[in-house]
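Treating backbone geometry as a discrete language has practical consequences that deserve illustration. In the encoding step, the backbone of a single protein was reduced to a row of integers, each denoting a local shape. The amino acid sequence and the backbone structure tokens for this protein are reproduced below.
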Amino acid sequence: MGAISIRNVIKRYGSGPKANAVIHGVNAEIADGEFIVIVGPSGCGKSTLLRMVAGLEEVSGGEIAISGRVVNDVEPSERDIAMVFQNYALYPHMSVFDNMAYGLKISKVPLAEITKRVDKAAKILELGPYLQRKPRELSGGQRQRVAMGRAIVRQPQVFLFDEPLSNLDAKLRAQTRLEIQKLHAELGVTSLFVTHDQVEAMTLAQRMIVMNAGRMEQVGTPEEVYHRPATTFVASFIGSPPMNLIKGVADGSRFTVGTQTQQQTLALPVAAPRSGELILGLRPEHATLGLDGSSGHGGRIGWPMKVEALEMLGAERLVYGQLGPGLFTVRIDATLTPPRPGDSVTVQMQPEHLHWYDATSTQRV
């Protein structure tokens, strides 16, 4: 029950040579009861993919199957799915109870069963005291819970969430994320959750699909995607601040960056995986700062960097500086004495934290 199979799915708008392809052969297997987050920047095709699973968009090529049944030509109402939208989509003239019960009434479910399901959902979502209120009398977080309650009472095989937290403030988003986690743990229903927010993706997903320009860049657990990004796009999109990426030419334990007029050769703690043009990646938290001219603690390699700016973020600081042709970021503990803009420091790292990518394909080496 509830397993979703997405097989070489393509979406085009228009026909003939002027057709605009927005989804390019997406493949994914989602197990029954799994919570999958589809994450990517605006316009990458994540909501379009979700709407094809829901039946709100036609599939131009490939197949989508739910519980082993191909649903390409099946009406949304017959797919046994429930969708939670960004804008809540509540009926303003109906009470919370009637909003949650409306779909069941249309399906002619007996009143006793409707009341039982709504009461159970209201208990899960802590909506009991609000069942007789109208949506205008509720906060944004409460309205979103009503929208989730309306989906829960349907008892579907699949939940589809289309950026449901986008209209909430930061505190409510964090609170609602926890509610969604608890909801999935209690109900165990297969869920597809679309977001452009990497924090939502990392905290909610059992596995995540990272999309870019209508293609899947990587599928994996949040830990896999964060610690071993498959491409430079994933490396720069997942993580805040993003991974530092430096393009250059590797030659053994040397890495030359910059242009001929402004070249800099960086010593590597271990030899690069191959010689030639590569992109080197290092996350800000995997770098440390040493004094100018030092080789680092324990003889660790140090790259010279001139500090340009600092940001205080509570428990940590971000140090920005010029390293090679571009800006480089280092995350340090806020309890450490920070450098000042204009200071010369060395960036130090451990070899296991270096990432290497092909300069042409941007794929992980």
Helices lie at 46-54, 96-106, 111-124, 140-153, 170-187, 198-204, 222-227, 232-237. The longest strand covers residues 20-30. The chain has a mean pLDDT of 92. DSSP finds eight helices and 20 strands in the chain.
